[in-house]
Amino acid sequence: MTDFNFKDKYSIEDLLDMRLLAYARGGEITSSLLSDISLSPIEKLEKIYTYITQNTSYPTQENPDDIYYLPISVFSNKTGTCQAIASAFNIMCRSAGFDVCAVSLNNHVFNCVILDGEYLFFDCTHEITSQKFSETVTDTVPLNCFALSQEKMQNIHGNFSLPLAFWCTLE
To answer: DSSP letters of 87-151?
Structure first.
């Protein structure tokens, strides 16, 4: 991951305000998305995943602005790096009551949700960037990196092992 010195651009108060705003905005969006109380947990996760993958783009510049590494950029600018996208997914999942963490591996960040004792992996960024370069346009939302097993996620990102406790970072 790129190492940033945000204090050169933002005060601690600004960063805290952006964090609080991200949690507030993420919570509002999640509440709106999940207003149907009959949704199953996996349906809730699909709505969150679909919202992020359909409403967020990856920065096009080679060295994105620092703001694109913060989750508020996903909610405000609809643009973010893998770090911001994974953080936004964390915020929305936590707002919905899920145990979730961001997994940092090989200079990339994706998510893991523990549902009924099972580790499910989600990579919104991989979905977003795959859609961008896809030749096929469909009316359905692709779920290529949604609720994957460890084995399937390893096919995308290489080997990693459980337990996640040692390398799972909570937002």
So the answer is: HHHHHHHHHTT-EEEEEEETTEEEEEEEETTEEEEE-HHHHHHHHHT-S---SSPP-TTSSB-HH
